[in-house]
């Protein structure tokens, strides 16, 4: 049987990780913790809606990247936009990677299994819409998700996607038209 050992009274337990003593490191840790508390769920939903097959890993990688670059951020208030842009880019890269990998592996297409996290996030009444959204080209899907689910302005979407505002309008209009057509066809 396992016993829980406690240090004798008056002694302290050594920390498992070294203590952070640099004020800049403390600020980074606190800023990142706030960012995580405020935006983890929305970043996870963003990755799911953009079509990530492993949204938890995409979001974790995005937080890791912002952690590494925290000192180089010009404005820590822009951290949310940077995080959102990183999630978009990582999801796009992951989808491209999977497309290449699937070309080299022969598997039936109907063996796609959703993660428990993404299943919990999506309600039954949203599944039809999500399926139609997944059928859109990646750029149209990204523009629609950033605009209508996150409520971003065209300039913010352009910055997140790395394209012009005119391209955002084009992708959004084409995506809405295709989504409307797909939804009407399913009724």
UniProtKB/TrEMBL annotation:
Cited SUPFAM superfamilies: Sigma2 domain of RNA polymerase sigma factors, Sigma3 and sigma4 domains of RNA polymerase sigma factors
Pfam family, one: Sigma70_r4_2
Superkingdom to which the source organism belongs: Bacteria
Domain RNA polymerase sigma factor 70 region 4 type: 128-179
UniProt GO MF annotations: DNA binding; sigma factor activity
Alphabetical keyword list: DNA-binding, Sigma factor, Transcription, Transcription regulation
Family: Belongs to the sigma-70 factor family. ECF subfamily.
PANTHER family: ECF RNA POLYMERASE SIGMA FACTOR SIGM, RNA POLYMERASE ECF-TYPE SIGMA FACTO
Record-given protein name: Sigma-70 family RNA polymerase sigma factor
Organism of origin: Streptomyces cupreus
């Amino acid at each position: 049987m396992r016993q829980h050992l406690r240090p004798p009274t008056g002694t302290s337990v050594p920390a498992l990780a070294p203590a952070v003593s640099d004020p800049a490191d403390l600020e980074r840790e606190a800023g990142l913790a706030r960012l995580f508390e405020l935006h983890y769920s929305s970043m996870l939903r963003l990755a799911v809606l953009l079509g990530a097959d492993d949204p938890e890993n995409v979001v974790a990688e995005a937080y890791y990247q912002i952690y590494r670059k925290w000192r180089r951020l010009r404005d820590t208030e822009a951290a949310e936009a940077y995080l959102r842009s990183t999630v978009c880019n990582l999801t796009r890269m992951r989808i491209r990677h999977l497309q290449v990998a699937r070309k080299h592996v022969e598997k039936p297409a109907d063996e796609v299994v959703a993660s428990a996290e993404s299943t919990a996030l999506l309600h039954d009444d949203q599944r039809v819409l999500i399926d139609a959204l997944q059928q859109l080209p990646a750029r149209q899907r990204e523009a629609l998700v950033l605009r209508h689910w996150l409520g971003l302005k065209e300039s913010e979407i352009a910055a997140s996607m790395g394209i012009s505002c005119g391209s955002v309008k084009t992708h959004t209009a084409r995506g809405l038209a295709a989504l409307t057509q797909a939804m009407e066809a399913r009724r």
